[in-house]
Specification:
Elements lengths: L9 E2 L3 E5 L5 H8 L2 H4 L10 H12 L7 E7 L3 E2 L6 E2 L2 E9 L2 E6 L8 H16 L27 E7 L3 H9 L3 E12 L3 E11 L21
Antiparallel strand pairs: 1-2, 2-3, 3-6, 4-5, 6-7, 8-10, 9-10
């Protein structure tokens, strides 16, 4: 089931966040072939466009009560090199790949311009609108991620992000938009790119709420993909 663009599109000063679509394959491929982009993820750099096609198809078909996956576009059309033709430029992907966990990836060609924090701030606004609060007694189906069978998204008053403890850029981005370090776990994840890695967990509370006290730590096997 492809997710409705009507409820999952948001504009910022320079960007548009909207649902991924099959025509994004070229831009997804450009991101997922980059070792500097993929080293922190749960996948190796892709060597065949069919791999990117499989990845994109899975993201497009995500169950709307469990996930929403968005493209990050520049609002200003970009000129294709060597031509006079302009097109919309997708510079990254961002979303809640398994609510309440969110993640992001930006094409390295567009790093250092503030696009990550601009997009992530917008994503959080959408997250609070779409993901119901446990305090709510009634939620609108569209805003709460209700699917065609009437199933609704689980309620949360926080969003969570996790990343490799050594991924300083992602840690700074999370902190810049208001995430706080929740905990760090040593040797939590066996990365296909870097081996056994420590993981940093970040959380941000819904506006008007506070984070609950940290529970006693356990060490299940996990995956800090962004």
């Amino acid at each position: 089931m492809e997710q409705s663009a009507e409820h999952l599109t948001i504009q910022t000063e320079r960007l548009i966040l909207r649902p991924l679509r099959s025509s994004d394959l070229e831009d997804v491929w450009a991101i997922r072939t980059r070792p500097d982009c993929m080293q922190w993820t749960s996948s190796r750099p892709e060597t065949n466009i069919a791999q990117s096609q499989e990845y994109l198809s899975a993201k497009i078909k995500s169950k709307p009560t469990e996930a929403f996956n968005l493209a990050v576009d520049l609002r200003e059309p970009q000129t294709i090199p060597g031509t006079n033709v302009k097109r919309t430029q997708m510079i990254g992907m961002m979303g809640a790949h398994h609510v309440p966990e969110i993640g992001w990836v930006i094409n390295p060609d567009f790093w250092g311009k503030g696009y990550g924090s601009e997009a992530l701030s917008a994503l959080l606004c959408l997250f609070w609108k779409r993901v119901p609060s446990p305090a709510e007694t009634h939620t609108d189906g569209a805003s709460a991620g209700e699917d065609e069978d009437g199933e609704k998204m689980k309620a949360y008053d926080y969003a969570e992000a996790k990343t490799d403890s050594a991924n300083i850029a992602s840690r700074r981005l999370a902190e810049k938009v208001g995430f706080v370090l929740w905990e760090e776990r040593e040797k939590f994840y066996d990365s296909p790119n870097l081996g056994l890695r420590d993981t940093a967990f970040y959380r941000i509370p819904r506006p008007g709420t506070t984070l609950a006290p940290r529970p006693e730590r356990k060490d299940p096997v996990g995956d800090p993909s962004r």
